[in-house]
Amino acid sequence: MKIYQVDSFTKEVFKGNPAAVAILNEAISDEAMQKIAVEMNLSETAFVKINEDYCDLRWFTPATEVPLCGHATLASAFALWKGGHWPKDKTIEFKTLSGSLFTSLDSNGLITMDFPANYATTTEGFDKTELESAFGFPIQEVLNYPAELILIFESEQAVLSANPDDAIIAKQAQNGVIVSALSDGGKYDFVSRYFAPNLGIKEDPVTGFMHTILTPYWADKTGKTSFKAFQASARTGEMQTELKGNRVILKGNAVMVFETDFIIPSNLNPINKIV
């Protein structure tokens, strides 16, 4: 089995969000995928099974399987093209737990991903006082998306300086807490970060899935449909996003860090289908 490590949503190695991409020659068990994800110890490890006209795709954090992951989808497409597993001029359809996702290369060489738009709703199931204490800034709006809590702040500085306690984040949200604000500068439209200790991730460097929620939100608030987004983690990352009907288009770059061959131990022999 070939495994690639790819930095997504960046043009520079050691920035953006690293993901492992395992190209499966045959189906392996859920247990095997989870153990490999623990061994890779990245925010997500993607498992790709190539078929004639599409690819099956699943994503695992070191703690659990997740239904959608943007940066590991981008990494998977990049690895398939870069490794010669899929023609560069052919759109990749990934069949996933979140339905079919489509990736292609645009005329500028950006990897383009077509995802379902996800819409957050207002919520009251949170402790605002505790959250404002954890972040040190007033919260403008609190929203909910299944298993996720979204905090909207008035200033970019609130997002940039965020350093919340893991225990508070773990208690307030099943998966994680998304924080966002409009950008104060001219280079980006909005900024964000994502904290998810319950998924085994203190802070995710760059989160494609999160932008399928934030893009419709900021489109509603600003009247715009296209954005330049910046995720202000320590590694940093950027992407272009666009709301098109009930779909969100995410565009970004990726770079290869390394590739290796991985021999699956005999006690983890294939037993399950990938999807």
TrEMBL record:
GO MF term (any one): isomerase activity
Active site: 44
GO cellular component: cytoplasm
Gene3D superfamilies from the UniProt entry: Diaminopimelate Epimerase, Chain A, domain 1
Family note: Belongs to the PhzF family.
Protein name: Isomerase
Protein keywords: Isomerase
Record has Chloroplast as a keyword: no
Transmembrane spans: none
InterPro entries in the record: Phenazine_PhzF-like
Family annotation (SUPFAM superfamilies): Diaminopimelate epimerase-like
